[in-house]
Amino acid sequence: MENNYKILIADDEPDILSLLEKTLKLEGFNNIIKAQNGNDAVTLCRTKNPDAVVLDIMMPGMDGYEVCRKIRDFSIAPILFLSSKNDEVDKILGLAVGGDDYVTKPFSPKEVVYRVKAQLRRALYGKGTGTDPIRIGKLVIDPDRCEVSVDGRMAELTAREYEMLKVLAENKGHVLSRERLYERVWGEESFGCDNTIMVHIRHLREKIEADPNDPKYIITLKGLGYKLVDPDER
Questions:
Q1: Could you tell me the pTM of the whole model?
Q2: In whole angstroms, what is the distance from residue 34 CA to residue 113 CA?
Q3: Domain ranges of the chain
């Protein structure tokens, strides 16, 4: 079934671009934008405003990590990394710079498409809910706009960071384990999720806390997990 989503694919290998484009179109994605280097990927993302990005890491000129950093300056579109590396450090780095998912080459093109679909569903979740903003201290989460502000200042979160904060806010005052957080936000079982959660929590704190090293909103309970609290109620 055809849909209106715009998908940007960035890879320096024409065969991979062609294969992913063909598979996406078979699944109803007919608005495909292609780039063969990092500079073009950033430019096209800025001008075409895609709904999701599939991004190769190893590209000439500007690698995928740097492309992701630049895209995150102006877009919260889900980013799925493609990489020939299978090292956990590389996966963590991909998440740390703002990526939302990671697939290792060689990959099944259908798996990539299904992961894109999953990211789009998660990005869509929370939009247009008609619900009132969630207010916790000076932190405001607006589900209709998918926006977060702290003391009147906008916090530029990735889609994944936004989802994690929203889950914590919906469970204000309650401790959520790393496993539970991962399952709620990623929608899959939490095998070896500790580093992934820690990276996202660290980045959330950098964006919403006055002092990330002395957090007032996202509290760690050693050995148990995390909870979101109102600093004024502590």
A1: 0.59
A2: 15
A3: 3-124, 134-233
